[in-house]
């Protein structure tokens, strides 16, 4: 998995990246997830290990489960995984092990008074007593459900009964999206079935049509330079 550079309205509590050589096919409706079509992106990975990764870092991960997020009507898989280098990697082998070995504790803050030290101590004691254990899978699902709400967008939905599928299902998703990526690279799908920018990215990466990629970028660069030259010329008057 490759840790990606993403910007959200509030912090994400896990390493967030993608699986290379995967593509969520926008031409295939998934009958198991409300008939949603793929979002034409690589498969996302949520790595739940202890260490905070760096942007662009490549991690070897162990898939544990999958969340079928429906993002603005499109299927956007979230593979839950842990780094093979994590101290608890050997303890988790399927989705059922996640809640046991990766619990998240949220303290319920009832109130806070700072006028009297006695009340402050009482609040601290209340924080320690009134806490709620929320599993990692639930926390991940709720985070991705709500993260677009500050932008004025509706909450995302989830298929598969609103629960995380097991490891075997996650591996099935990875296999299917890898096959979709292979079709894209080998040009075995009709032109226009995939988003052109995404297609061009893979063509450039694997140099299957280098001349076309090179010429198109030269023309694009020439257009931009000409455009800005005209702007500078008119701004001079």
What descriptors fit this protein?
single chain, 237 residues, alpha+beta, Inorganic Pyrophosphatase, 2 domains, 8-stranded mixed beta sheet, two-stranded antiparallel ribbon, 20% strand
What does this structure look like?
Belongs to the PPase family. Its EC number is 3.6.1.1. The chain crosses the membrane at residues 210-234. It catalyses: diphosphate + H2O = 2 phosphate + H(+). This is inorganic diphosphatase. The chain has 237 residues and is α+β, with helices and mostly antiparallel strands. The chain has 2 domains: 2-103 and 135-194, Inorganic Pyrophosphatase (Alpha-Beta Complex); 195-236. The chain is 37% helix and 20% strand. It is built from 6 helices and 10 strands, in the order E-E-E-E-E-E-E-H-E-H-E-H-E-H-H-H. It has helices spanning 95-101, 117-129, 136-146, 167-186, 196-206, 210-235, and strands spanning 2-3, 15-18, 29-30, 36-38, 44-47, 61-71, 74-83, 103-107, 131-135, 157-158. The strands form 2 sheets. Strands 1, 2, 3, 4, 5, 6, 7 and 10 form an 8-stranded mixed sheet that branches. The chain has a two-stranded antiparallel sheet with strand order 8-9. Strand 3 and strand 4 (36-38) form a beta hairpin. It is globular.
Topology (elements, then pairings):
Layout lengths: L1 E2 L11 E4 L10 E2 L5 E3 L5 E4 L13 E11 L2 E10 L11 H7 L1 E5 L9 H13 L1 E5 H11 L10 E2 L8 H20 L9 H11 L3 H26 L2
Parallel strand pairs: 4-7, 5-7
Antiparallel strand pairs: 1-2, 2-5, 3-4, 6-7, 6-10, 8-9
Quick overview of this protein structure:
The chain is α+β, with helices and mostly antiparallel strands and 237 residues long. The chain has six helices and ten strands, in the order E-E-E-E-E-E-E-H-E-H-E-H-E-H-H-H.
